[in-house]
Specification:
Order of helices and strands: EHHEEEEEEEEEEE
Radius of gyration: 16 Å
Strand content: 25-35%
CATH architecture: Sandwich
Distance between the termini: 7 Å
Structural class: alpha+beta
Shape: globular
Helix content: 10-25%
CATH class: Mainly Beta
Number of domains: 1
CATH topology: Jelly Rolls
Number of strands: 12
Largest sheet: 6 strands, antiparallel
CATH superfamily: Jelly Rolls
Oligomer: single chain
């Protein structure tokens, strides 16, 4: 399948070309995410490239709460995606994982993030014990890495009076894969698919 761009923005094309070039030469994902951070920071601080239509809530979101995930770019083999996630004011995501290496950065608004780690080995279906390991506040331009299993499970809440928007570079087709939603209080976990607000999930 061919690579797909869902917005026409030079800043996105330049960043994606950089990602593809570096990923082709670096198989160690822990080094790749570090190498990509300067270019990712440039994308986060660039203005005017995200269309207004990609900043609206999604009432049909698989994440709930009107949280919208807009696919911006997808590599033909679904090994890399770039997307914008819109979190309405006051809304928190469920605790969830990503199952991929990646970079996440804040583009607009402010957020609080809770990072969890799994304290069991997944032996019992439907059960998961989580431990809260970090809580941090994020402002535009800040980013963090995802390298499963460390730091791959979190919950995000908008703390600004307007919606917050984060940009995600991930090593999978996040909206179309089956991943996990957790309830830390009940020590429970269920499979879910979040979907994309602007693209239907189809088999590659």
């Amino acid at each position: 399948m061919n690579d797909e761009y869902f917005i026409d923005a030079p800043a996105v094309r330049t960043f994606v070309e950089h990602v593809v070039t570096l990923a082709a030469g670096e198989t160690r994902r822990e080094r790749l995410v570090v190498a990509l951070q300067p270019a990712f920071a440039d994308l986060l601080t660039a203005e005017g490239w995200l269309p207004e239509s990609f900043t609206r809530p999604n009432p049909d979101s698989g994440m709930g709460g009107g949280i919208a995930q807009y696919l911006l770019y997808r590599r033909g083999d679904r090994s890399v995606t770039l997307h914008a996630a819109v979190f309405p004011a006051g809304v928190a995501s469920p605790v969830h994982d990503h199952l991929a290496w990646g970079l996440v950065g804040l583009y607009r608004g402010t957020q609080e993030e809770e990072v969890y780690r799994r304290a069991d080995g997944g032996e019992t279906p439907g059960r998961a014990r989580l431990v809260l390991v970090e809580r941090r506040r994020l402002v535009p331009g800040e980013c963090y890495t995802l390298l499963p299993p460390a730091g791959d499970i979190h919950r995000v809440r908008t703390t600004s009076p307007e919606a917050s928007i984060s940009i995600h570079l991930l090593g999978n087709d996040l909206g179309c894969i089956v991943r996990h939603r957790f309830d830390p209080d009940a020590a429970a976990v269920v499979d879910f698919k979040s979907g994309w607000a602007n693209v239907d999930c189809t088999d590659p």
